[in-house]
Amino acid sequence: MLPFEQSFITIISLSTPIVLVVVGETITEKSGVINLSLEGTLLITALTAFAVSVMTGNPVLGFLCAGLVGSLVALVIILCDTKLGINQIAVGFILTIFLGKLSSFLGREFVRIPGPYFPRLSIPILKDIPYIGPSIFDQNILVFISLLLIPLTWFFLEKTRFGLIVRSVGENPDSAQNRGINPEKIRLLATVIGGLIIGFGGAAFSLHAKFGWSENHTGNYGWICLAIVIFGGWNPVRAAIGAYSFGAFQLIALKLQSVALGLTQVLPLIPFPLMILTLIFIQRFNRSKNNKELPGLLKIFFGGQEPESLGKPIEKK
Amino acid sequence: MNSIKKLPLGTFFIKVILTLLVASIIMVLLGTSPIEVIRSIFDGAFGRPEKIVKTMLIFLPISLASLALIITFSGGLWNIGIEGQIVLGAIGATWVAKSFFGETLVSPIIQVIVGMSFGALWGLLCGYLKVKFNVHEIFGGLGLDFVATGAIIYLILGPWSRSGIASTSGTDIFPKESWFPTISSLNIPALSIIIVSIIILILILFLSYSRFGLMLRATGINPSSTNKYKFNSNHYIYLAFILGGAIAGLAGVFQASVFYHKLVPSISGGYGFLGILVVLASNRRILPTLLLTFFFSAMIAGGSQLQLRLDLHSSLISILLSSMVFFWLIFNSSKVNDLLHRIIKRN
Amino acid sequence: MKIEINNIFKAFDEVIANDDVSLEINSGKIHALLGENGAGKSTLVKIISGHQKPDSGNIIIDGKKLRLGSTKSSIENGIGILSQDPLDFQNLTVSESFLVGSKKFGPSLNKRKIANELNKIFAEYEIKVNPQIRIKSLSIGERQQVELVRLLFENSKIIILDEPTNGFSLNQRNLVFKVLKKLNKKGYVIILVSHKLDEVFDLCNEATILKNGTKVKTVPIPFDRKKIIKLMFQEDISKIQNHSRKTIPPKNQFISIDLSKWKLGTTEIPQGSKVGVIGLQGSGCNQFIRDCFNKTVNISLGNGNNSIIPPEDFHYTPSDRLERGLFEDLTIKEHLALTYGDVKVIKWSNIEKRANSLIKEFEIKGESNSYAKQLSGGNQQKLQLALIPKTPGFLLLEQPTRGLDVKSTSSVWEKIIERSSRDFGILFSTTDIDEAWERSDWIICFSGEKITSVSNKSMIKKDQIKFLISGVKD
Lengths: 317, 347, 474
Description:
The complex is a heterotrimer. By secondary structure, chain A is mainly α. Chain A has a domain at 5-218. Chain A is 68% helix and 2% strand. In chain A, strands 1-2 form a two-stranded antiparallel sheet. In chain A, helix 1 crosses helix 6 (141-159). Chain B has 14 helices and no strands. Chain B has helices spanning 9-29, 34-46, 49-74, 82-97, 107-133, 137-157, 190-209, 211-221, 233-260, 271-282, 286-303, 306-310, 315-331, 334-346. The radius of gyration of chain B is 21 Å and the shape is globular. By secondary structure, chain C is α/β, with parallel strands linked by helices. In chain C, strand 11 and strand 12 form a beta hairpin. In chain C, the strands form 4 sheets. Chain C has a 6-stranded mixed beta sheet with strand order 6-7-8-3-9-10, sandwiched between helices. Chain C has a 6-stranded mixed beta sheet with strand order 16-17-18-13-19-20, with helices on both faces. Chain C contains 16 helices and 20 strands. Chain B binds chain C through residues 1-5, 208-212, 214-215, 217-218, 221-222, 224-225, 228-230, and chain C through 312, 316, 318, 323-330, 334, 337-341, 343-346, 348, 365, 370-371, 373-376.
């Protein structure tokens, strides 16, 4: 094995769920909607994936059901917001608690029992490439999917006509409507599809990265992912980089645990100061009058644009 | 609108009944019997005098958390950082308990002062991030919650660990003087009740009878109209966070000194977030908030028995409470109200 | 190409915006919609563009009935609208903003190819804009130019311009007009909503005049300007005119208003005067009042030593009452409590009494416990006036009688006049010439954000005002 190759593989592998979640939430937030229920959604979808997988013996089915649950939760949030006029943040918050506790309740019988593993995808020749080979081409298929989704999502949002429509709704729903777009419909689609991918992320926890189920199995990851989406400047690629960085920190903390107790406690904190710093930088540079673009390196790490209509309901005329 | 749109009182009760019905349906779906559960909760909350005291011990911190949230919601703010503010209050109380003052008679008072200050500081941080850097209070609050959690775990495993053993079960028990004075063998938390009552009274006075309170509410409703009335809405944001943080800190003090008598990692008991549920449902009005808090406390106190009696997971209570709040919001949403209005008009 | 608008009726609550409006426009026509504020022009074009749905009526384009209330359907039928505020996307690049909703470039966006295309198009229309920069770095004029080009790009054959030239430089305006005339020759239908008669006469070949939601007349251009203005501002004989005018006791003190922003030096007006700022919507009157409140325009007591009027003595009421002047979820008595700046503790019983007496005095239809959002617009305005402290001050009132019926209007003015003898002065903006004439001692006329006249009422004739605010050089 090459130096640190095992670590590299582990990081890519274990960060998979976070990558999926942040990519999904980025799509949702690009259209102007915050899915604050992430913490609860992750728990319930992780449980769903594992439970279905154990009960049917088919992890792929578990994976799909988790996605379904994720999109259903997202649907509830967006419908309450658009059809009933209830604040999306309030609904998201309540669901966080509800789904979290529901997962504890329903998951009692699934604690610490074994289950079927997700199939492995092994591509000959490619898997022998150093570092990348074993990480991507000789791995759990979920890892492969997550890696595919990153460029796909980026391409979709930045380079396709429909992705532009999604972004336009996130910026200015009124102007979008003027172009013949139905902003409510777009937000619905973005939220539900985001929820689907988030559900897949939950499955990636319980079927792969942290196998099985236990009480509060994915604890705090939901909040961490929200922070990483912001740190990612609402750009799926950078959010993924943030996810992998977090995975790296986790691994380091694990290795150093014997040396410095409590490092694992510090770990969940790291995304948040970074998130706050990112928000501050984004504010500073985007409100400047002459609209200077950030100097290159800073822009990559701290640039980004918050969708103007994020969290704001669409006004009815 | 020219006419004042008010729905008859009857609709309120219908909504309450519907909400309770939904809770029952959920209980059935989860494989439990509503009647058994209700009976168990009632018994667990009010069955014996000791249990009533316990219910009260839960009521006090949740009511403080809810009141703190009323202040911040009035200012138009989502104070998700409340959990961290509670934690900081508890840390403050522990600090006092472990200090020279910890074994003196004035310990409770000092704890209150220090705990509230710590909580206020934590809230102020949130406010500062929002005003100076436009960091939304949800994300600032979340971040500070995590930092607070990190701090408390560090303290419990590190400098404040139990003599000899560093354990997540908490610190050493506080010296007796630091426990708040109680009455009778039942340990009714007399001082705490007095303090909370005072706070409630002050809050009612503040929000309803002081110009500050009115200006705070104005800031929450429409920040752009405020400069016409010549006040700076930013000052009110700071004020809301400081007051809210202080009261939340007090809840933390109670948790540490009145309930647990020591510092534990999960010192807040999730009461901050529960407080958010309460205030969302009560729409920030003080009396409904207190009534709802009472209901929540009874559910939680009674719910701790569920595991023993009916072999039901304790999470059932939170499931019921959060779903009831959710459906209550649906039944009170503008669309549903419009629908009810139209139905009533037709008759 | 022909667009037929038939019997359009649209009401908002009790206000009738369009009352059975019908007209017909053929291709190759540049058709103006003229009228005072509130005449219904904006509503009509929003119905054509699909942003609003009429209560009844239909629109037929080349024999095909248009599905109403859908922007998508209007766009598909070749309708495009250029609004007062450019409906673009500030944070996107020019290319991106241009392409939102467009089907012309296929599913994937090739940035370089698009930039080239756009450069070509922009060059064709003589627009100097770089497609790679963000919309927010452009001026309003440039943004509107880009929007117009976008409409053409999307094959809009019916182009509506809703007072779009506010904020244009002269060059930009001429460019746009050149383009429009070219399109006109190609057979496009162009509808221009404007109150700048100069522009209308420069560009259009016919005009429809709307008043109070109904169509008055359609005339060809050129036409007698004076007749047009008469039709637009027709005297409404049924209006009750209140002739009560209190004489102002002669004062030695003067108020100085610094008009250097409009390159007009300082105007001195006797203390206690009522100054009416008249102009059409968007011409700058309201902004003027706001400027006086936020000290962009300096008002001082000038009698040699130029003493400053303390800022707390300026009392300002905005025209969008609920958005910037009141708090929708606070009650009348809570609003009153807010105004007592020095009081820390609120004695509600006193406030209640005071609120009730103010409600009676100002004839507000509501109770001390009524929420501001429950009051009608007129009553909200009365509330705003009632909240002004009775001590002498300088009143800055943005359209104080906007949305009020005749009776409320005169009672509001009674209250204003009652205190005018105490106050340093009253500055109010309005779009109603009668009101400006009846109520003021001095008149400032605005047109296109420029001051066209500042004078004592005795120095001009009422008839002149129409011209002064219409941008017509007499």
